[in-house]
Amino acid sequence: MIVVLVVAAGAAWESPVLELIAARPGMVVLKRCVDVDELLATSSAGQADAAVVALDAPGLDPTAVEVLHRHQVRVVAVGADSESARTRAARAGVDVLVGHDDLDGIPDTLVDQVDGPSYESGIDTGLKTGFVDDTDPPPDPDDTGRILAVWGPAGAPGRTTVASSLASVLARRGLRTTLVDVDPYGGSVAQHLGVLDEVSGLLSAARMTADGLLEARFATVQRALGDGLTVVTGLPRGERWVEVRAGVVEHLLEVARGHGLVVVDTGFNLEEDPTGDLVSRPGRNQLTLGAIDVADEVLVVGTADPVGLSRLARALVDLRERRAGVPVRVVVNRMRSSLGWSRRDIVGMVEGFARLAGVHFLPDDRAAVDRALTAGTSVPESGDSELARALAEVADAVVPPPSPHRRSERRRLLARRR
After folding, report:
1. Is residue 414 part of a domain?
2. Which one of 43, 321, 353, 409 has the largest count of C-beta atoms within 10 Å of its C-beta?
3. Which domain, by its residues, includes 381?
4. Rounded to whole angstroms, what are the CA distances from 277 to 40, 245, 246, 257, 282?
5. What is the pLDDT of residues 188-240, one digit of tens each?
6. 297 vs 200, 226, 304, 320, 330, CA distance in Å?
């Protein structure tokens, strides 16, 4: 017996589908759920085998589908036969998308899904859904950006200052750069850079991801700060992290990667949240974890004082446990001679906790930071300073300037494409 749940969200196809399922021997509808939340609650009883859901049902997103899969419920979505519908279905992770003109095949589809391979075997082979979209060719590596996550332990070591300054330096060098604020405890990139708009780019991206519109409307979640630099502002208040479902940050960063370099200002906590909503809400730290999981390189920011170095050492261990193998670069902030140890001493300490791509030092230049904060700009934009020069050196190490030969080759490549 195949037990089915249905969420039609008021669609006209509900009655025909119910009749088709009722007419099929060995198949029964357990419940017609009002919405996705009721679907998730019902599936937790472990009595259903599959769910037929309207693709445009509010709340049908990667988190909801993951919960259904956790309870061994296959997800068959019903939607339009269009490219946007296929994209949204693939993004949500549903098992099969059935067009409005193919409703007669839903019973057979349910049988194929329930009697098909288990979820575990699908994961082992890299197949998370029955959905395959091979219409788009793989992206050209030359046109694909990198995701640089700026992370660090608790204690305000200067993550936002480093992230905003790094993005500014890269953009001023002619590199298309997107600065994204995903700090789940209340982002401050907007305040650092004088962005007074009350609309949160991150929350806008979360809503568009749920609707499958982020790729097409990505420009609307950004604020232009100059030639080549845009910012996706963070949460206006920390408690609004609940509005960002699992998978949103990863999707947002992947979309931004397609437009150039991405610099991400993250939170500090890498712990999985065991108190997260058991139905559909991820833990608060999922915003930071998602950014770390898709980053091509992580810049770990710590302070040079005894407390800051102790936290930095533990942070490097936590990061290694989370993403072993990702390139890690340490940025030691507020370095000053009065601390009594040399750069070599600090390098020797941090290298004992992780294999690093490099260690960089930023001077304790309070005047430069205050000038930038007062003006609502990044440190490099606020004028020449010792700190601005040190940040430029970090940018050189993260994204090395191309040699004259490589620049000429790239110009010829772009000319051919035009």
Report:
1. no
2. 43
3. 141-403
4. 12, 11, 12, 30, 6
5. 999 999 987 668 999 999 999 888 889 999 999 999 988 899 999 999 888 88
6. 26, 25, 22, 13, 11
